[in-house]
Design a protein that fits this description.
Elements: H1 8-34, E1 38-49, E2 53-64, H2 67-87, E3 95-106, E4 119-132, H3 138-147, E5 152-159, H4 164-189, E6 192-201, E7 209-212, E8 228-242
Antiparallel strand pairs: 1-8, 2-4, 2-5, 3-4, 6-8, 7-8
Helix pairs in contact: 2-3
């Protein structure tokens, strides 16, 4: 039996490794040549809808020299607002209290020694989020809320009560848009489309978002325009190209 010297043994291993690599490279190149190629496309869609619900944020802010009286006054005014909203048949599930806070109010500026300002009062704040499902009464609700104690307004947005069908329609339209883009690109490149490798929904849904205000509510105490909302979807496809 032939014995390898310590010096020749590494040389034999390197030679064997080169043989293995040399035999495997042609197979790897062949597989790359057979790859049909992939096309990445993105489709978008936006489905408009008439809103049937509004969300408002109204608040009560009270001040008093004593913290307990500031809180008590705030609670009294907010109770009056809640009672008025119940008169408009706003369901309890559509009312949510948030951002209840109590903070000191300092006198303006600093004293002559640059010392911290002293507390002159306490401010209590309470925010109420209200979902209004009867848009014809939205103006009345805003007017009544302010008249019965709400003295701050945090914003108004419109939406739909059942967004599911809009989401489905947006997804379907985004998929059609992506496939149409893929067909256009493949035709221009002179190739065909093969099977879809992957489907990715990017970013979820935005909306409903306010787009434009054009539907006035003439009989409302506070003029309000509901306008139009939309649901958006984005879909990305990876499609195999047919040679």
């Amino acid at each position: 039996m032939r014995r390898f010297s310590p010096v020749s043994r590494p040389l034999a291993l390197c030679a064997a490794l080169l043989v293995v690599l040399g035999l495997s490279l042609p197979a790897q190149v062949a597989r790359a040549a057979d790859d049909p190629g992939l096309l990445n496309v993105t489709g978008t869609a936006q489905i408009p809808a008439i809103p049937d619900m509004a969300t408002i944020r109204i608040g009560v802010v009270t001040e008093d020299r004593r913290a307990d009286r500031a809180l008590a006054g705030n609670a009294s005014q907010m109770s009056a607002v809640l009672a008025k909203l119940q008169g408009f048949d706003v369901a309890p599930r559509d009312l949510q209290t948030s951002d209840l806070s109590l903070s000191p109010v300092y006198e303006p500026g600093q004293d002559y020694r640059g010392q911290s300002r002293r507390i002159v009062a306490f401010r209590a704040s309470n925010i109420l989020t209200v979902r209004v499902r009867d848009l014809e009464r939205l103006g009345e609700i805003l007017d009544a809320s302010v008249g019965d104690g709400a003295n701050s307004f945090g914003g108004l947005s419109f939406g739909v009560q059942a967004p599911g069908p809009l989401e489905t329609a947006a997804r379907e339209a985004a998929m059609k848009d992506a496939l149409a883009r893929a067909e256009t690109l493949a035709t221009a490149a002179g190739v065909g489309l093969g099977p879809i490798r992957s489907i990715t929904e990017q970013g979820g849904f935005r909306g409903p978002q306010m787009m434009r205000a054009e539907m006035a509510m003439a009989d409302a105490a506070v003029p309000v325009a509901a306008g139009e909302v939309s649901m958006s979807a984005t879909v990305s496809l990876v499609i195999e190209l047919a040679q």
